[in-house]
Amino acid sequence: MKLNSQQCDRASGVLLASAAGDALGAGYEFTYPAAQTPIEMIGGGPFHWEPGEWTDDTAMALAIAEVAATGGDIRRGAGLDAVAAQFVRWFDSKPKDIGNQTSAVLSARPAGAAAMQARARALTGRKAGNGSLMRTAPVALAYLDDEKGCLDAASAISSLTHDDPTAAQACQLWTHAIRHAVLHGTFDGVRGYLKVAAADVAEFWGPLLDQAENGTPADFSNNGWVVHALQTAWWAITSTDDSDDRHLPRALEAAVRAGGDTDTTAAIAGGLLGARWGASAVPAGWRRILHGWPGHTAPDLVRLAMETVRGGRDDDQATTSIRVVRGDITAVHADAIINAANSSLLGGGGVDGAIHRAGGPAVLDACKTLRATTLPDGLAVGAAVATTAGNLPAQWIIHTVGPRHSTTEDRTDLLRSAYTRSLTLADSLGARTVAFPLISAGAYGWPRHDAVNVAVDAVTTATTDVDVVTLVAYDDETATLIRRALTR
Ligand SMILES: [Mg+2]
Predict the structure, then answer these.
(1) Which of 123, 172, 287, 301 shows the smallest number of beta carbons within 10 Å?
(2) Cα separation values, 323 from 69, 126, 320, 480, Å
(3) Which residue intervals define the domain Macro in the entry (predicted)?
(4) How many angstroms does the Cα of residue 398 sit away from the middle of ligand 1?
(5) Catalytic residue among 164, 335, 352, 467
(6) Residue ranges per domain, the chain?
(7) Does 320-487 carry CATH code 3.30.1390.10?
(8) Would the annotation count 186 as a binding residue?
(9) Is 352 a catalytic site residue?
(10) What's the rounded Cα separation, in Å, for the pair 358 and 245?
(11) Residue 57, annotated ligand binder?
(12) With a threshold of 0.85, does the pTM exceed it?
């Protein structure tokens, strides 16, 4: 389905924020952090995680997303079989941590969904662990255009390892809420589930949501149980300041502070928080160090989320997600970083100087080679050229030259061209994620407000295969201006 740029940002945030919660909580698993303990993405914990490393929660969510991204119907048949096979593939990677129930099912390496469900049914004892809820977020992305399909898929995938109606309902409730948050930007889908669920299901969950909103973590401290895990996540979301997008890190920290199965409760909360606030609300410091099975980092989570939304349909409605990040462009992970260069290509002040410093001598050498060969007169205003990214966390630098601002001549088209020709070049390189600074807004004197409007207009109307465009703002005020322009 076709999403607007806000919806794209929110869809992009689902896996990213869930993984961020997971990696944040990983270092505190089975503990109850004291009030003065800082909550940071430190790794460690009982399984000796690396800082920023996500755990089984995200790994299993990615196993689902990998299948949904190819367009399989994950409710039944070959699609559900493929999800089961991905679970076994992950199990075979010998993960450091795995829930008891999931382990009991997957250790038999059941071939196909029916065999896996049968194995789950045959387990005895308590069967309503939080292990199916923790991985349900990508299901929402796969069924944004189909409310009933979303509920059916949530329940079917839960049943692969968790033969319990409460676990299935929890997955339905949360997946329904994530879907609603991506589409509408509110948390109303949590209560909205009670309106679409059977009467007895609504009667069961309604008071539990009340308790989460009015209680404390001590009221639902057994959060290895799916019910208490959902309540802890909902408590974290509803008990923290939600006046701006810092709600996302605040609520994840609260989920971890609640203690117990911290990586899982924060992963669950993260799926919904990311759907509400978007990828742009995930702090850059977290995004930089996020990583985990199967060898993925933050840009992969964004790409996979968008591929899950598209469900294998490579249609003309392919969407470019636009997000806003405040910070240093040289620290942003993207396939291509755009440099606001000058025509000489030999470095300068502002962003240009910072990119050359961070990229190292390889970048300058590549630019000198261009000057000595194809660009003896330098790069024209509005044009773009690519080089290595040297030491930057990117594959390419795309150098483009914005126009100087003029009070006597309208140079808007040249400024637009700096953006659109950079994106065209990114397409030809195969770059799927691209980060732009605000071009011409520094020494070239473009009024910031105008520079923002041209940037947003150029990027939102461009025809490109790039999945994610990150607009990097150097201060809060610029970030706010860009966000405002994007909502117009
Ligand atoms: Mg875990």
Answers:
(1) 123
(2) 21, 43, 10, 12
(3) 309-488
(4) 39
(5) 352
(6) 5-315, 320-487
(7) no
(8) no
(9) yes
(10) 29
(11) yes
(12) no
